[in-house]
Prior knowledge:
D-Maltodextrin-Binding Protein, domain 2, 10-stranded mixed β-sheet, alpha/beta
Amino acid sequence: xxxxxxxxxxxxxxxxxxxxxxxxxxxxxxxxxxxxxxxxxxxxxxxxxxxxxxxxxxxxxxxxxxxxxxxxxxxxxxxxxxxxxxxxxxxxxxxxxxxxxxxxxxxxxxxxxxxxxxxxxxxxxxxxxxxxxxxxxxxxxxxxxxxxxxxxxxxxxxxxxxxxxxxxxxxxxxxxxxxxxxxxxxxxxxxxxxxxxxxxxxxxxxxxxxxxxxxxxxxxxxxxxxxxxxxxxxxx
Length: 236
């Protein structure tokens, strides 16, 4: 398996649980690389399962696409930031670079440090689609190669803002409500929170053998319970 660094830790956990329950199973190897890399790995056959945290583009079609869960994108700031809610257009203005100081939004007089993901990241692709509305993220944004790296950077900078998978939000950072709606599993499953993206498994052909057995396990009630317990929303 290869692809999305957002899906990667959940795939690793599922693979570990599957191999524990199926002792005769050969090893399941999970690698990152980003959603675009995962899509290409599935298309080329270099991985039996690709992983993506965004929907496929038109030129990437032709793969078997399996939705394994829903994830939300949380907008995060440093815990000391006095703000708790932003409008979607305010987030866009920050990430284009047009708003450069928290004082413009009613916060403290502190420059805003914008954190983003690298090109090819499914998280970045979903953020651009859901938030940016065709506008470009400021070139001054600091690029990170994983959700975990964004979390670490925001946790260490009182002026920072970034976006990560809701499932890995912890006490080191502060998630913001968007127009009054707080990011949570309940708000995602109830379709109240808007920044939602898919977690996908991809295969170059109809899954068979071990690949099918593993996918069936992930989609089973026990597999979905594992994902839900880790902060994701069930695929059904």
